[in-house]
Amino acid sequence: xxxxxxxxxxxxxxxxxxxxxTLYIPSLLVTHYGKALGDKTLFRMC
Length: 46
Known about the structure:
The protein is of the alpha+beta class. Helix content is 15%, strand content 35%. It has one domain. The strands form 2 sheets. Strands 1-4 form a two-stranded antiparallel sheet. It has a two-stranded antiparallel sheet with strand order 2-3. It starts with a strand and ends with a helix.
């Protein structure tokens, strides 16, 4: 079984792109055991 979680990155700003009416919410992706699955997560953990 594979499991991962997305967490809202409170240190980054949310922004809205009017061109395609999309709200972007920066997030971090981690495994069930807390290991980083993305480069951004690694930088936030340092």
